[in-house]
Amino acid sequence: MRPFSGRRILLGVTGGIASYKTVSLARLLAQAGADVDVVMTRSAREFVGAVTFEALTARPVHVDLIADGHALDHIALAKQNEVIVVAPATADFISRAAAGRADDLLTACLLANASPVLIVPAMNDRMWSHPQTVANVAHLRRLGYAVLEPGTGPLASPDEGAGQGRMREPEEILAAVARFLEPAGALSGKRVVVTAGPTREPIDPVRFISNRSSGKMGVAIARAAKRRGAEVTLIAGPLEVPVPEGVSVIRVERTSEMADAVRAALVGANLLVMAAAPADFRPRAVAGAKLKKSAGLAPIALEQTDDILNSTRDARPKGCVVVGFALETNDILANAAAKLESKGLDFIVANDATETGAGFGGDTNRVTILTKTTKPETLPLMSKDAVADAILDRVELLWKDGASGR
Ligand code: CTP
Fold first, then answer.
1. Residue 222 pLDDT more than 70?
2. CATH assignment of 8-181?
3. From CA 232, how far away is CA 195, in angstroms rounded?
4. 126, 197, 372, 397 - which has most CB atoms within 10 Å?
């Protein structure tokens, strides 16, 4: 049985004595059918030779950002992998990763990467329990990285203690990798529609009304749904981030265009996630020619745009799960609960626009998920990719427990 056949894994190796176990891990991954790209730090090569990994994975091992006078394409290397595993992850590597450094190939791959990351620490027990390492590990977790806690027991070097710090065994790491790869396919056969970004309502041919939405949250959801095997349609206003590969994209500008695109995409859909921030107001009349300063300032009369969730309600197929967002500045839970009800949603994902690290623009979010039947669930501050996975996990649960309640 080759359960990882065709799956792509980037295996990062840093300079710790436990890297002798990573040799077995590389062998297990390759035997399971995975294509394994090994990236070693310079100090890792003091412990194990690159040829050992090359022989086991039948692929070249990467060490430097610059090889043979050419810059290695760390972006492509990071993008083509479905999961990054760093084993062993030394205290130094964890510190550099937590600081967002990109001073070697492995840390550069982490920054260029959008896939799940599994960090497998191995170090002396005193280093593991040092408050600096504890803070670094907590920060990595907030960024959405999974950390496989080291075990207790004799450390590799015989003169060291037996506290916590021992790298997990290759079989345990393999099982953790399998958990990352499993979700792919869990949404296969499902049609998922995601909206992302702001819309723009023109004032004249060059000016518009819009908002600060970057589209990152919607794009993260589209990417996660695609990774889980769904057929994904992303309906996007102007985005600040690239669209994920393999997702069909419909570009729109105005709220009414987004509403039309949502209505059309809902045919046969199993899930709609409205992560977009459509403009709620539009000028009553759009000037045909650029408004000239010399003509003086005239007030711009506004009118409300359609609420997309409400105006497309009749187009929702039976059983289609609908997830909305609520970006609030005050009375967050009460406002979100009211929108859950008035917009006929299964879930609403609420966040506080005033909180640092949450909401528009950034790469992280702290959200509270409300449903009609469960208590509000506040998740810790995490990457938007991790929030996307948390939302899809709950949608999958809903499907497991029976179709949407509507
Ligand atoms: N939404 C929508 N159509 C709009 C505006 C918002 O479908 N014209 C969706 C958003 O995509 C989101 C949910 O409704 O999923 C809540 O959006 P939000 O901006 O929080 O609420 P509004 O309904 O616009 O209400 P208000 O701005 O008054 O808070």
1. yes
2. 3.40.50.1950
3. 11
4. 197
What's the whole-model pTM score? Answer: 0.64
Selection from 315, 316, 347, 348 nearest residue 332 by Cα: 348
Q: How far, in Å, from the CA of 70 to the mean position of ligand 1?
A: 48
Please state the rounded mean pLDDT for residues 341-358: 89
Q: What are the residue boundaries of the structural domains of the chain, listed by start?
A: 8-181, 191-400
Q: How far is the CA of 229 from the centre of ligand 1 (A)?
A: 28
Pick the catalytic residue from 211, 310, 351, 365: 211
Is 211 in the active site?
Answer: yes
3-state secondary structure (DSSP) of residue 43: coil
- Of 194, 255, 273, 274, best ligand 1 pocket probe by most atoms within 8 Å of the beta carbon: 274
Tell me: the pLDDT tens digits for 254-289? 999 999 999 999 999 999 999 999 999 999 999 999
Count the Cβ atoms, other than its own, within 10 Å of residue 304.
Answer: 10
Distance CA 100, CA 93 (A): 11
Token pair belonging to 64: 């430097």
Check if CATH label 3.90.230.10 holds for domain 191-400.
no
Q: Could you tell me the distance, in angstroms and rounded to a whole number, from the CA of residue 199 to the centre of ligand 1?
A: 12
Is the pLDDT score of 50 beyond 90? yes
Residue whose CA lies nearest to ligand 1 atom number 16: 326
